[in-house]
From TrEMBL:
UniProt xrefs under InterPro entries: Cyt_P450, Cyt_P450_CS, Cyt_P450_E_grp-I, Cyt_P450_E_grp-I_CYP2J-like, Cyt_P450_sf, Cytochrome_P450_fam2
One GO BP annotation of this record: xenobiotic metabolic process
Molecular functions (GO terms): heme binding; iron ion binding; oxidoreductase activity, acting on paired donors, with incorporation or reduction of molecular oxygen, reduced flavin or flavoprotein as one donor, and incorporation of one atom of oxygen
Membrane topology: Peripheral membrane protein
Keywords, ordered alphabetically: Endoplasmic reticulum, Heme, Iron, Membrane, Metal-binding, Microsome, Monooxygenase, Oxidoreductase, Transmembrane, Transmembrane helix
Protein's name in the database: Cytochrome P450 2J2-like
Binding site for heme: C411
Lineage, highest ranks first: Eukaryota, Metazoa, Chordata, Craniata, Vertebrata
Homology family: Belongs to the cytochrome P450 family.
Cofactor(s) in the UniProt record: heme
Location within or outside the cell: Endoplasmic reticulum membrane; Microsome membrane
SUPFAM superfamilies according to UniProt: Cytochrome P450
Length: 465
């Protein structure tokens, strides 16, 4: 005799109360989630995975440091999961080079990270044919107008020196002055004009952008990425990200519209004239880091006085004759560790890395921190030491020095960033001696947004006699 299935099931459910049904449903969903999170065959190992959350890490520590703690146990390649996102973490110069350089074509895509995908819809998150066309256009355009890069940076360095002179040797926070200078270079190249440092709307937008990037890299931003379907409907501090970004886009659109009205074709020469598309400032990724200075500054002063003097502006041609200054700047970038985990890559096809099988669509996180502080590469990795980049008094390149990453998706603004860093740095040290205020101590403390930024600090700029 055959017993009807559905009537029996309904009868059984009627005898159960709501709490028991809820418990059974939750247990079922947890089991399904756990099965879904199982690592594929021959996939890089990693910490135990838990339902819903995935990998537990010490969230009191910055993510790049929390992941570094896993290296002794799991080696230079391991996997972690945060909510719905799975990452393969790669450590050490040889392993990172194997992935980004030797397999550059395979790791040439960006993963679909929810928050970044909703905000950055340009070069940072596009893939395939669209990305190749955008990058080709951007690089060719920047190359075409690169002759004016140096002139724009030199001009802005004069404004930066003037705004710092206004402090008259009193303590001040240099963050937004330097941020304004770097942003003005981007605006000058993109829009054909700059903004006054005292422009209230410009400063408001810079503060909004800084808060946006801080929130993206915060716990709330990571929570949104892990559970986008849930977080999209919830209130929270991360909502400011979208408000700030809309404000920024409106500002950029206004500037572009005004620019198109004012400039004729004969007056072209900036990025908009080449491509009338909405651009989003990415200066956080490339902003020169100034607080990591040490007693080496006295030697830099001597080199500036010897090569440049006090009667003219620094130029990029001077760099070849200033090995010590170049070494100091490289060491600033190394210890500054601006993008600790790089920008994630995604595999375009199945591949093998260190003997592990990585299916198509695997998201790769490259620990640039593990390279910048590798004890097998750097003589004194935890100490600010320009000698890392000097040999017999001359500047030497280091293979394991990758502040702008490597491969197909390396930072396209590297040339401009290096120009800004050298000219701003030498222009400031040509005019000023920087020191900490009385009873104040400069530290390496930082906050982590999309980039690693120094915490607010005060400094004095004393005119050099």
């Amino acid at each position: 005799m055959q017993i009807p299935f559905w009537p029996v099931l309904l009868s059984l459910l009627e005898k159960l109360n709501g709490q028991i049904v809820l418990v059974i449903l939750v247990m079922f969903l947890l089991i399904v989630d756990l099965l879904r999170k199982r690592r594929p065959r021959n996939f890089p190992p990693g910490p135990q995975l838990f339902p819903l959350v995935g990998t537990f890490v010490d969230f009191k520590r910055p993510l790049h440091l929390a992941l570094q703690k896993l290296t002794p146990q799991y080696g230079n390649i391991f996997s972690v999961q945060f909510g719905s996102l799975t990452f393969v973490v790669v450590n050490g110069y040889q392993m990172v080079r194997e992935a980004l350089v030797h397999q550059a074509e395979i790791f040439a895509d960006r993963p679909n990270i929810p928050l970044l995908q909703e905000i950055f819809k340009g070069l940072i998150s596009s893939n395939g044919h669209i990305w190749r066309q955008q990058r080709k256009f951007a690089l060719s355009t920047l190359k075409s107008i690169s002759v004016s890069f140096e002139e724009k940076v030199q001009e802005e360095s004069r404004y930066l020196v003037e705004i710092i002179e206004e402090e008259k040797g009193q303590p001040f926070d240099p963050h937004y002055k330097i941020n304004s200078a770097v942003s003005n270079i981007i605006c000058s190249i993109t829009f054909g004009s700059r903004f006054d440092y005292h422009d209230s709307r410009f400063q408001e937008l810079l503060h909004s952008l800084a808060e946006t990037l801080l929130l993206i890299g915060s716990f709330w931003g990571q929570l949104y990425n892990a559970f986008p379907l849930v977080m999209r409907w919830l209130p929270g501090p991360f909502r400011k990200i979208f408000r700030h970004w809309e404000k920024l886009k409106c500002f950029v659109k206004e500037v572009i519209a005004k620019h198109k009205e004012e400039l004729s074709l004969a007056e072209s020469g900036d990025y908009i004239d080449w491509e009338p598309a909405t651009q989003s400032p990415r200066n956080e990724e490339r902003r020169p880091r100034m607080p990591f200075l040490s007693l080496s500054i006295e030697k830099v002063h001597l080199e500036i006085d010897s090569v440049i003097g006090q009667s003219r502006q620094p130029a990029m041609d001077d760099k070849e004759n200033m090995p010590y200054t170049s070494a100091v700047l490289s060491e600033v970038l190394r210890m500054g560790n601006i993008v600790p985990l790089g920008v994630p890559r995604m595999s375009t096809s199945d591949t093998t890395l260190a003997g592990f099988h990585l299916p198509k669509g695997t998201t790769l996180m490259t620990s640039l921190t593990s390279i910048m502080f590798d004890k097998t590469v750097w003589e004194t990795p935890d100490t600010f030491n320009p000698e890392h980049f000097l040999e017999n008094g001359q500047y030497r390149k280091r293979e394991a020095f990758l502040p702008f990453s490597a491969g197909k998706r390396a930072c396209p603004g590297e040339q401009l960033a290096r120009t800004e860093l050298f000219i701003f740095f030498t222009a400031l040290l040509q005019r000023f001696t920087f020191e900490a205020p009385v009873h104040a101590e400069l530290t390496f403390d930082f906050t982590l947004s999309l980039t690693r930024c120094p915490k607010p600090f005060q400094i004095r700029a004393l005119p050099r006699c």
